[in-house]
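Exercise 7b. Backbone tokens:
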């Protein structure tokens, strides 16, 4: 019977597809012990050795170390427990590899210097607590002292990235770029100006009107004009420009006119920062949200429309 058959190490190699050297290595370490010896002293193996070698090969391909494999093969450890622990370890490694890939991709695509590459690498390796501190530092720089505990609480939540424990490659790349952007002093200052504009509006305007985000209002007013191909300097754009000014006048509780259009233009120019668009696109990728369309065309049109009508 096959169960009584003994195999030489060469025959065992042919049956398992492993090399003689590999089987001897496992045998020397007690993972696959010979069942007997030939009269000449050569090792002989039974059919159980075939099964053990198949298990060893599978576990080695899955990355388990030899001491652990021996304990599993000898039933000293549960295969399920070992698999669970190893899967958890692999998840950490996968996350690290994805973040490293994100850094290398950014370096290749954007031509970073050695110093910038080092910074990106450090950003990718941040622990969860370190990421929280970076995010908190950014939000505090933008909203600190502006009543963030109440009026800005929802805005802060909507601007907070939540990187998953096991991010996809695209999320890892987005996180590295988001962190770079959040650390940019010029970008922080620009977002701070937008927050200060909003705080000033809340201090003197109509609370009901202010519940609608300024950027959303501008988008809703201007998008139809863009779709229709209306030139912002043309007469056809007059009603849209008037609606923009009317909305802002209502926000501030002031009459429309040249004195109002100057702060309106500044407000539009502050919001019209391509990095703002990029921030929210990256945030959406990190958090698994739908990626928003760019608002740059809307604000470009709005800035032009208001500028040509400053003194009308």
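Sequence design result:
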């Amino acid at each position: 019977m096959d169960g009584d058959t003994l195999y030489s190490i060469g025959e065992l190699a042919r049956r398992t597809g492993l090399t003689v050297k590999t089987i001897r290595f496992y045998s020397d370490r007690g993972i696959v012990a010979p069942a007997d010896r030939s009269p000449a002293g050569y090792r002989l193996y039974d059919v159980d050795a075939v099964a053990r070698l198949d298990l060893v090969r599978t576990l080695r391909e899955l990355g388990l170390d030899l001491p652990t494999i021996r304990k599993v093969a000898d039933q000293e450890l549960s295969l399920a427990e070992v698999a669970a622990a190893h899967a958890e370890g692999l998840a950490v490694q996968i996350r690290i590899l994805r973040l490293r890939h994100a850094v290398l991709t950014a370096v290749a695509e954007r031509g970073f210097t050695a110093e910038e590459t080092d910074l990106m690498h450090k950003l990718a390796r941040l622990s969860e607590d370190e990421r929280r501190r970076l995010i908190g530092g950014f939000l505090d720089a933008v909203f600190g002292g502006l009543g963030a505990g109440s009026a800005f609480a929802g805005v802060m939540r909507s601007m907070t990235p939540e990187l998953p424990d096991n991010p996809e490659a695209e999320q890892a790349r987005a996180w590295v770029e988001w962190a770079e952007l959040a650390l940019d002093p010029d970008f922080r200052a620009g977002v701070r100006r937008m927050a200060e504009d909003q705080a000033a509006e809340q201090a003197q305007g109509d609370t009901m009107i202010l519940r609608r985000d300024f950027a959303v209002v501008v988008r809703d007013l201007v998008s139809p004009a863009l779709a229709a191909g209306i030139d912002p300097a043309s007469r056809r754009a007059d009603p849209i420009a008037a609606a923009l000014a009317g909305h802002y006048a209502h926000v501030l509780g002031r009459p429309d006119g040249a004195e109002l259009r100057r702060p309106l233009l500044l407000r539009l120019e502050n919001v019209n920062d391509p990095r703002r668009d990029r921030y929210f696109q990256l945030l959406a990728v990190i958090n698994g949200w739908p990626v928003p369309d760019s608002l740059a065309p809307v604000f470009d049109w709005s800035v032009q429309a208001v500028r040509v009508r400053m003194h009308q």
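Instructor comment: The chain has 16 helices and three strands. Residues 97-307 form one domain.
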